[in-house]
Specification:
Elements lengths: L26 E8 L5 E5 L6 E6 L9 E4 L7 H5 L6 E2 L5 E5 L9 E15 L2 E2 L2 E6 L16 H13 L10 E8 H19 L2
Parallel strand pairs: 5-8, 6-9
Antiparallel strand pairs: 1-4, 1-7, 2-3, 4-6, 7-8, 7-9, 7-10
């Protein structure tokens, strides 16, 4: 029996081994680390590629959408240059929030996501953009092409979650949402993160 082509004998690293997507920057691959049902912050360990427990959520906030990152992207110099208030990118892959009508409760999955906008988040002086997308083959959201066409309360929930998920009572918060942007800016951010990745790690 022959193996399918392509075939990975060993599991690819989610950040470096998966493809960026079928039609970037419009349709990208999202690797999901957290679901709306999670009360623990999970993230991929950069060395091994396995999902690790980063921290239990301190507050009662839960992510309003699926949350993960776009493979083969990197928030470096170019991402920092797109933000007038950030000194640099945060040195991580580009984050993505994916909206799905049907509840998805599993993490460590990959999916195709159609980009509709994003949030410019500043975290301790670094640009930490959150791309907003819809599940690519989701019939419920198939006519949404820009963040302005999403229900305003959903965008509000995303803003609130990312404004508060690192909040520690009694301490000044260094994390805030600078702006919400549409699909054209989001695609520009993804292109910049692709270029930052190529410069840092090669194509």
């Amino acid at each position: 029996m022959s193996f399918p082509n392509p075939f990975f004998r060993w599991r690819p690293h989610p950040w470096h081994g998966l493809e960026i997507g079928p039609n970037p920057p419009k349709v990208v691959t999202a690797y999901i680390e957290i679901t709306p049902f999670d009360l623990v912050k999970y993230e991929v360990e950069k060395t091994t590629g396995y999902l690790k427990v980063d921290r239990p959520q301190r507050s009662s906030s839960q992510p309003p959408t699926l949350y993960g990152f776009i493979p083969r992207t990197y928030c470096g110099k170019r991402i920092g240059e797109l933000s007038p208030t950030a000194a640099r990118g945060d040195g991580d892959p580009l984050d993505i929030c994916v909206i799905s009508e049907r509840p998805i409760s599993k993490s460590e999955i990959i999916l195709s996501a159609r980009v509709v906008g994003g949030l410019l988040m500043i975290d301790n002086g670094e640009a930490d953009d959150k791309i907003i997308a819809v599940l690519a083959n989701d019939k419920f959201w198939e006519n949404v092409n820009d963040v302005s066409e999403l229900p305003s309360v959903l965008v509000e929930r995303l803003r609130h979650y990312f404004s508060t998920y690192k909040l520690v009572p009694g301490k000044e918060s260094l994390t805030y949402i600078d702006s919400v942007y549409g699909h054209e800016r989001a695609e520009e951010v993804i292109r910049a993160a692709m270029q930052d990745y190529e410069e840092a790690y090669g194509s």
